Please model this.
Amino acid sequence: MVYTAGVDVGTGAVKCVITEIDGENEKVLAKTLLRIRQRDPNQLAREAFDHMLEETGLKEEDLAYVASTGEGESLPFATGHFYSMTTHGRGAIFLEPEARGALDVGALHGRAISVDERGKVLSYKMTSQCASGSGQFLENIARYLGIAQDEIGELSKQSDDPERVSSICAVLAETDVINMVSRGLTAPNILKGIHLSMADRLAKLVKATGIGESVVFVSGGLALDTGLIAALQEEVVNQNVPVTIRTHEDAAFAGAIGAAIWGAFRHEKLAQLQQLPLAS
Amino acid sequence: MKSFIGIDLGSTTTKAILSNEEGQVLGRGITNSRSNYETAASVAKQEAVIDARLYLCRERLEQATGMGEQIEQFIGDLGSFFRKEQFLEQLGDLEGTCLEKIEGDRFVGKEEAIKEALAETFRRLREEALVLYAPGAERKSDFFRDLAGSRYLMISEEVAREAQLGYDLLLNVYDKSIIEVENRPPSGQLKEKFQRALQEVLAHGSVSGIASEDVTGPVSDALDVDLEETYVVGTGYGRVTLPFSKEHIRSEILCHGLGAHMMYPKTRTVLDIGGQDTKGIQVDGEGIVENFQMNDRCAAGCGRYLGYIADEMNVGLHELGPMAMKATRQVRINSTCTVFAGAELRDRLALGEKREDILAGLHRAIILRAMSIIARSGGITDEFTFTGGVAKNEAATNELRKLVEENYGKVTININPNSIYTGALGASEFARRAIVEGRTYDDAELVAA
Amino acid sequence: MTSQEQIIDRCQVLFDDLSFTSAREWKAAEEGRKVIGYMPIYVPREIIHAAGMLPLGVLGGGDQLEVIHGDAYYQSYICRIPRSTVELGVTGRLDFVDGMLFPSICDVIRNLSGMWKLMFADTYARYFDVPQNFDDKVGGEFYVNELNDLRADLSKISGRKITDDQIRASIELYNENRKLTQDVYAFRAREPWKVPSSDLYLVMRAGMVLPVEEHNQMLRDYLVAAADSDRPLRDNCRVLLTGGFCEQPPLNLIKSIELAGCYIVDDDFLLVNRFLLKDVPTEGDPVENLAHVFLHDSESTAAKYEPFQAEKGKYLIRAVEKYGAEGVIFAAPSFCDPALLDRPMLQHTLKDAGIPYVAFKYAENSGQMQPIREQAGTFSDSIKLWSEA
Amino acid sequence: MSTMTKPKRAPKPRPEAEKDASMLKQKEMMAGHYDRLTSAPENGDKVCATFVPGNLNELIMCFDFVNNLPEQNAIQAGLRKTSGRFVMEAEKMGHSEDVCTYVKSDLGMMARGNLAPNGKPFPDPDVLLLSYTGCFTFMKWFELLREQYGCEAIMLHTPYTGDGVITDNMREYMVKQLKEEVIPKLEAVSGVKFDIDRLREYLRESARAEDDLVAVLQSAKKKPSPIDAYFGGIYYIGPIFGAFRGTKEATEFYRLLRGEIDERVAAGLGPITPDGPMGEEKYRLVTEGPPNYTSFRDFWKMFYEEGAVCVASSYTKVGGTYDFGFRHDPDRPLESLAEYCLNVYTNRSLPQRVDMLANYIEEYEADGLLINSIKSCNSFSAGQLLIMKEVEKRTGKPGAFVETDLVDPRYFSASNVKNRLESYLQMIEQKRSSTQTLGAAA
Ligand SMILES: Nc1ncnc2c1ncn2[C@@H]1O[C@H](COP(=O)(O)OP(=O)(O)O)[C@@H](O)[C@H]1O
Ligand SMILES: Nc1ncnc2c1ncn2[C@@H]1O[C@H](COP(=O)(O)OP(=O)(O)O)[C@@H](O)[C@H]1O
Ligand code: SF4
Ligand code: SF4
Ligand code: SF4
Model:
């Protein structure tokens, strides 16, 4: 049995977990999420990490592997780093064992990852630079409309006649939305419109990775947005993508969980491969 | 008297200019463009009218003599008190609206506490308003949203903490109310507000020893001048949404060209950086556009980019320039994608770069892009004028001066403190010419519909 | 002996120098010297050299050049290299160059040849066409005539006749250069930790601006120095990089890929160094020999027609085998039609052969490496976690 | 403010767009072509796929092939608004967002049933004749098609006229390719022996139609111009750039068309638009670049609503530049085929393109140059901004630049294009009225 930690340094928030892994048995002992809000992410990561140690009563040296992911490549207290797609794919399977795909939607990115049953990444697709379909954009618009983040989902679901946002550029899309408001569109219809546009792109990503008939797990911060999830469910049907969309209340931790599990896996593999000269 | 109005409905701000038959600018008005373009246009127009009234007051007072040096100060006070009146009026509206918005699950059981907190918040806001509009005080912005908004956020956070209440609840009520308030055109009773303001100036103004009878007459005179709206021309990004017929609309290119020419008749090249576009315009000796180029569909490097950066850093737009000026070196920034501006900033901060240095790099990047657009439109040959909101930003103008000199040698560079009004100025001139010079229509055609 | 660091420092200086000081100095050193610039991917440098001129590789402005004028000539959906090249021209950085060759690689460079004629009317500018028909009697003859036209043009510029013997002598030097280049590549593939790819890139890039004699010496020195390197072996996978044959990636991108856990064991940067895969014979008509090797033994890239469907993309598989790569990274410049249109076909070939690959795009001035690290990193993660060790 | 609004003029009654005899004939020809193509398998016809620029229709006919032009299929998909789906399909198959959407529309269409406009499936080609003229993308496009169909592919490499001249070396290289490569392979696939006299006959027919086409396009020199040489021009070039050059049908079509245009000239009429005859001709423009097909009508409307007519365009020269005297020549059959390929607009050097456009502005007395820059097409687009600058410099007339795409609806932003076009036309208007005022004052 080993204890490992996963630290996911994102653009919007830092997520940390500690897991206890015993062969096939994987258990999350503690988890913490801290919003970055213009603070130093690495420092926050340390804070979150300490907080978890305290919560579990473990000491740093009890951990077999501290795996960073996300933008935490330079995290001083990490043993090693895994890249986001590697970790989200694995985290997805932990949270939803039937998943063969993960859709990681965060503040500035969307990534669809196809994995096998062991969590190995088979292929992936990322949104390109232009980001009118990003969480950040949605956040700005919600702010503009006077809506709290956790209200977005419910409102969106009340929509009766959504209108999609067509611009590829978030700046121009913002103006689109302003136009909509001035034309008297309701907030639910606007939000749903944005959700559908985002879902449209995301569904295309999923399709492009070639994930077949299976469950796709939505991870990342936007997994909590029930409106987006609903829109995604509609869009995959519209586009004939044969997948089932699911998520989990801990979806924001998928990356951190994946990292912690891979940490244990790597720990074992390194133990076998001791002869390999490793540079730091 | 006849008056001519030009309205520039920009993506970020809406500007209006009111001019007289001689083409002299009487008033300038500006507001933030908001979801309702019509409101934005009418607010800007009203602001211009207010400004014009102050102008007329000054004129009358000068004719009436007696006040000498003190006129400027007096007019300044009059303006301040007037704005305070208006601010309080809107603040009252905001408070009322906020109270209506306390509804829904999240507020259950907390209604009373929130009402109290709101009352306290608004009490403090009103208190501050007195300082904010004290004679001679500096304000960050004249937009209600900016002023009330940023203070509301600060104050309500304090109040929430003191009251041990969720800050997000107060934030939520505000977010829901501000748009509504903003989109209610302000009440039109200008004259009454001016009269009240005049009384206040007399009572608490910074100019001592004014005799009420010396000023009341001229001021009333000025307020009574009939500012007949003779012709309006609209321009700008949102011009098509204005309820004007085609004859009353001019493209922003023509308006910026003409406006720049009016300010600086020798201008041959105009650069306009607005919220969503950057334009390079070449004009001839008459202000007639010879050529123009705009940024392509990507809005990278436009004014809104700075907006995102300011939001990210949690500072006001006008603070960016001064911060960048403190840079000791310039970080090279290659991408000016607006959306990723924040990410790029964080990236660089994470690499240990200083905020000031990054900002300096960002400003340079914007100007580099603008330089390309100028080059596309034909480069700079003679006198050059920089217009649009970004011209207010000192770091940007500095960078521009440097780059223009590097690439085109020493040329005259004009940057007017009122450059943001250039498009509206051009539009008002088009309006004036339409009537006074009969360039487009004769009066018969202008009979109201 | 010169150390690896010393050599790389020198190369870095050459690389960073957007005013081409070394070439300027070469030209100034002797009355009457001429410099001929060329763009990717291939020109017969032997003929330029034989004319007593310096062939100078012009490969865009990288990520340190501020592009103002160049952007004025190009829409946002066109790759970066032509705009930074125009910038170099407009800002006078190429004012010492006596002629420019624009090889047949794509429509962008093709049209740039015409732009150059309009913008720099006093400089010799030539679109250098190569045949897409590989029959000696058809394409071969066309090419020999084109080469001789070029030879005539260059001899007019240099003011001296270019003899067959002079070309033969140049061929010999470039044969040597090609061999050394191959040796460095082979060395890196064997011990990639001793030759970081950014180093190799810089050493090869130096060959774009140095006289071939000097570059040959540099390559020899580097081989000796690299053998002594004490860089440690890292836990990296081995990849082949393809798609960057024209617009060059920023050096940081190459470094980022290695940082993200991938040793690059082969690439297609600066192909002019090794476009011809065999020694060009020095007996017989030298121009015909150049043509012959070009037709029958030259590198495959997207800019060249592949006459046989069965051969499409096979060169990648051969390279993977030769260099022992575990996967292929397609890194192409944004908006690069040749590279991006070719990519799906190459990927099909790899897929059939069971070779894993990833793909992403870059621009010569890309600043944000995060997405690149993310993708290269995921690729190396999956090879590392799942390769049978 | 409402007091300022002028009463809207009652809209002009909108006449049913009349169809000229030539339009009906063209429709019929196209329908016939698609029927011939889709029934090729039943009829035992062999199919040759090739490109518009440098297409060797006369030669292809010598081997009894039915000609299939992927570019025209992409255009059809654009006009029918299916191209957007096709492009996305191709992107899903792994094609980059950045590359030419003509290719992607074609490949996407294949993946989605490959249906011709008549609803029947396109037959697989028996041979791909890669006329590699004026565009590098063609080469990749045909490699992709070859991968898909696994059929014989023939490469005909047209050298680029980088120095603005056709050299003997180029011509000989092409003739040699025709003789050694193209003709033998076409013979092998078709089983038909090459007969040079048959080729001569077709070439003679081509030259006749070419004469009439030139007359039609040059009618735009008249004021008002009886045609729109860009939007309308696209219809006019259809048959000759496509599968009909060298046929009697084409000759008849162009004779008919020329007759109609002559009548319009005699009557002093302007062009016909989709909304009926165009109103007053206020602006005369020369255009550079392909049009946008997904919003073809909306795009055109932005012009004719403002009274702007295109009097000359470079796009109508992508399948051959005839207005400078080139004609297919039965006496030099292979040489003239070679020259035809070498001459197409996109195979011309940038300085030649500048000359051509500047001359058009002068000869057709245009107000300026409008460039529609196509995101897809590097062949056209790379360098257009310099072209604009140079043409402005030489003619003193202003240029304007709009950006769209051929068949990718995502790149057509109506408001963006309209804003620029309007600003441009207002600028021309303003300049004009200012010179008038000045003129009057003097
Ligand atoms: N409760 C919520 N409802 C909707 N969206 C949310 C919620 N919580 C977070 N988000 C969104 O999630 C995004 C952050 O996602 P995350 O995966 O943490 O990104 P990153 O990994 O880049 O930090 C934010 O843009 C935010 O809009
Ligand atoms: N006080 C200020 N200080 C610095 N920059 C400003 C200021 N006010 C406006 N700006 C800049 O000007 C831009 C708006 O310019 P403007 O010409 O009004 O644009 P538009 O016409 O598109 O509304 C803003 O995005 C901002 O970057
Ligand atoms: S500014 Fe807009 S269009 Fe440009 S790169 Fe950014 S998101 Fe895309
Ligand atoms: S990068 Fe690609 S598209 Fe650009 S010039 Fe080079 S080959 Fe052509
Ligand atoms: S790049 Fe241009 S010429 Fe080439 S296939 Fe595409 S649209 Fe046609």
Q: What stands out?
A: Chain A touches chain D at residues 128, 167-168, 204, 207-208 (CB under 8 Å). The longest helix of chain A spans residues 187-209.
